[in-house]
Specification:
With 64 residues, this protein is mainly α. Helices cover 62% and strands 0% of the residues. Helix 2 crosses helix 3.
Length: 64
């Protein structure tokens, strides 16, 4: 669903939507990590390091 939402977001709205795009990038990455761990969310907590979140936020902010 993230890919569809990004594809439909007009380029003129990207700058105004930067905070939302940053959060979407973080959540998308977290969901990928959960999938890579075999969806073991009841057995252990899957998280991203603060440095990785900052990296995702920075790259998304400057792309957006």
């Amino acid at each position: 669903f993230y890919d569809q939402a990004f594809a439909q977001l007009p380029a003129s709205d990207r700058k105004a939507q930067r905070p939302g795009l940053v959060m979407a990038a973080i959540y998308r990455t977290l969901l990928r990590e959960i999938a890579a761990d075999g969806f073991m969310v009841l057995d252990r907590r899957t998280s991203l390091t603060p440095l990785r979140k900052v990296w995702l936020a920075g790259t998304t902010w400057f792309k957006g």
